[in-house]
Task: structure prediction
Amino acid sequence: MDIEAIFHNISLIIAPVVMISACTLLMNGLLARYEAISMRMRMMNHERIDILQALAHNMVATSMIDFRVQRAQEIVVQLPHILQRHTMIHNAAFNVSLSILIFIASMLIIALSALTSSNLIAMIAFFTFLLGTCVLLLAVLSTIRELAHSQREVAYEVQHVLALGDDDKKE
Result:
């Protein structure tokens, strides 16, 4: 194998690195969202426990009881939706990790193809790379779906909070 063939093979092997880098950037964003959603669920659970404890011990003024009960009900409505979003981000992060694994495998198969000059192994390398791209597409679709759900959750909470003052105005 001459020097030009070696450089050509190295450039073929390095091509999936670009995809791995893109996956890593996407993964960093997904993990940040995943952690933010996890923290939000923990805070809401803690808030609900505090509300229920305060209500159980009658430590709340009568005027605050309605508000606390409404907030506890809002948390009960929101938590399953946030958990669903958490699962979507988890699946997206899993798919990105899987695509990185597949891209690394495609690098090794490309190297094997270059060493053996086998057309069959070259086709396997090509399809392995395409498989990694398809798995990455699934991760992106899951992320898009989670973003749509995220907007609905924020809108629900804002609209619910804005409606709290309307009850006082009607009386």
